[in-house]
Every structure is written in C-alpha cells, then in structure tokens.
Amino acid sequence: MSTYHAFTEAEAIAYARRMPDLFAPDSELTSREIGDGNLNLVFHISEPATGKSIILKQALPYAKVVGESWPLTLDRARIESETLMIQESLCPDLVPHVFAYEKDLALTVMQDLSDHVIMRKGLIEGNRYPLFAQHIARFLANTLFYTSDLGMNQQEKKERVKQFINPELCKITEDLIFDDPYRDADTNNVPAAIRDAVETIWNDRELHLEVAILRNGFLTHAEALLHGDLHTGSIFIKEDSTKVIDPEFAYYGPMGFDIGAVFANLLLNYAAQEGWSRDEQARADYRGYLLGTIKEIWSLFHGEFRSLWSLYGVDRVQQSESYQDWYMQRLLRDTIGYAGCKMVRRVHGLAQVADINQLQDEAAKERAQRLALQIGTSLIKHHRHAQSIDELLDIAIQAVK
Ligand code: SR1
Ligand code: MG
C-alpha cells in the first residue's frame, strides 16, 4: 500500500516500471506531465526504444484550476476508473482501456491516446470529423440505455446509483452551471465588454425559472450513469477514431445532460466562428457542418436508443410505442435545456472555453460571447416546448442572421 502524495515525473516513471507486462524492468523511460485540465495531473510515460507508452492520471486533493483553497475528493479517481470500465464493456472502441487503478494514490493507468487530438483543439483548427456523429451517438445510446431502468436489472441499477454517488463533483456542477452564472457570484469571470448582457441574465426571472427546473432534474432524476462532463475537451479524436475520456463527474442523472453537453460545445464553437473563420463563406460552411453534426447525432442516437429499447428493454410496462414516444420527446426537451445551460456557464462562469477565449480579435470575441449567450438563453427558455431537434438548429441559425 502506498500513501497518497502527488507524483513527480520521476515517481511516475518508477511507478510505471513496476506495472507488470508493460515495460521491461531496465528499459529507458521518459515522463512528461501534460495535464491541461482543471483538476488532475496527467503523466505521459513512454519507452523511446519500442514506442510503447501509457498515461498515468492522478487526482489532486484540490481543484487545480483554483488552488489548494478548493479541496476536492480523491474518490473521483475511483468513480472515473469504474465508469470507464463500464463504458468499455458497452462500447470498447470508444473509451481508453484502463490497465489499473490504485485507490491509495488516486491513480489510474490507462491507454495513451496521443495519436488523437483533443476535439476542442481540432474544431478550433477547423477540422471536420465525418465519423464523430456515428461514434458519439453510439456511445450515448449504449451508455445511457444500458445503465438505465430501461436496459438493466432495476435492482442492480439501484446498487449502481449507490456506487456512483458523487456529491462533491455534483456540487461543482450544481453551482457552476445552475447557480453562479445567474447571479453576481465571486466565482464568475465576467468579461467587461459583455457586462450588460450578463446583467440582463442576472435579472431575467423567466430564465431563472427554466434553470431551476433543469437544476431540479440534475439534482433528482437518477436516470442513467452519465459521463457528467461531456464537453469537447473530454473527447480525443482523429479521422477514424473517437475516444471519450475523463468521466470523473459521473453519477446517476438525467440523460439529456450528457447529450446536451455535446451539443453545447459544438454550438460554442459555432459562436466562436465569428473569429476563427477566414471569411463569410467559410464561416457559413463550418457552421453548417457543426449544425449538420448535431442533427445527425440526434437522429442516430434516437434511432439506436429506440432500437436497443425495442430489442433489449427489460421492463414490460415501459415497452409500448406511445410510452417510448413520450419518453423521447421529454429527452429531447431536457437535451435542449441542458445544452443551453452548458453554453451560458462557459461565457462568464469560472471555467470558460478556448474556442472563444483564444480569439485574438476583441471585437470578434465579444460577438462570439454575445452569440453564445443569446443561443444558450434561447435554448433554455424554449426547452419545455420543443417538438423537434430542428428547433435547436433554428435558434442557432436565427441568432447569426
Ligand atoms: C472546478 S472544475 C471546473 C470545471 O472543470 C470541469 O471540466 C467541469 O466542467 C467543471 O465544471
Ligand atoms: Mg475533465
């Protein structure tokens, strides 16, 4: 048993050397800490002679993005590794393989994905990923269906809910997504140029009601085992492969929260095209690609989820067509509402996105921020009335007209 302490690069090498069957005991290894997220250390260990490599991910006992003043449970490393193993059993090609998890060190040893890029970076560079919609729709359909009361034994599911109680990480989401952006909170990071638009949000009672309804769903609706933080920084991608990483926020929550997270991050990039595209035609083309991807994801997800349900549904009472229709419409509405919340928090909340923040042209950045707020708030306000995914797309299209 090892006592918890944050690893140095040299300690990461020493640990990797002890892993059976990975590296020869006397081989030369290199180590680089490459973590650029908000919470953890990530060591890339490689053996130059053979080209073999692995990742050691270690949770820190505080939120790295803020510092030691924000303590954070190490149990999130267990949640992450156990979630990855469940997801691997459902869609093995869409998540990294976990070689080992060591509780006392809050350490997970996993497959190295350095031949992929973080999707947020790929989108900022203007790349297109033709297989992404298929991959993420399959990931969402399988992970959400088979961990819910529709697709697994309902008593075992209750045990799973217990296994994935994740109060500290959920609290971050409850505050940073569903509370702080709607008031003048210390955690916010309000860009001076858009203060007027942010203050409008702080005073918008109609909006606050819709956010309260969505927050209630996040607090109480233990529907499926969610990834819990499914933004484009949690996706490694290349032309022919997609890998979903980092499920440390996993817990039993409303399915629409994960689907909405994917849509929100595509829409944040859509807003950021104000500054990234070379000219109007390129901007319209790339925005068309992003909206087409959202539409394709919803359509493939919807088809796959319903077909899993019809073939493998475990609950006779929930099997009827009309119940499935009702359920999918509610899921669409949740998805649209959560997508809106996930956009708004990234504009003036604590943790923002590179798509917008890396824009060098201040005027373009301001236009992108205002657009993201406009689309996000419209999605939140519309969500309980939505009938079709086209309404989400229309909101995005109207916002740039
Ligand atoms: C204090 S953690 C801030 C954000 O980083 C994570 O990726 C989550 O999105 C969280 O809200
Ligand atoms: Mg993360």
Which properties best describe this structure?
single chain; 401 residues; alpha+beta; Phosphorylase Kinase, domain 1; 2 domains; binds 5-S-methyl-5-thio-alpha-D-ribofuranose
How would you portray this structure in words?
The protein is of the alpha+beta class. The longest helix is centred in the C-terminal third of the chain and has 33 residues, at 280-312. It has a five-stranded antiparallel beta sheet, sandwiched between helices. The protein has a three-stranded antiparallel beta sheet with strand order 8-10-11. The protein folds into two domains: 9-111, 2-Layer Sandwich (Phosphorylase Kinase, domain 1); 117-399, Aminoglycoside 3'-phosphotransferase, Chain: A, domain 2 (Alpha-Beta Complex). Helix content is 52%, strand content 13%. β4 (62-63) and β5 (67-71) form a beta hairpin. Bound molecules: 5-S-methyl-5-thio-alpha-D-ribofuranose and magnesium ion. The site of 5-S-methyl-5-thio-alpha-D-ribofuranose (SR1) has 10 residues, from α6.
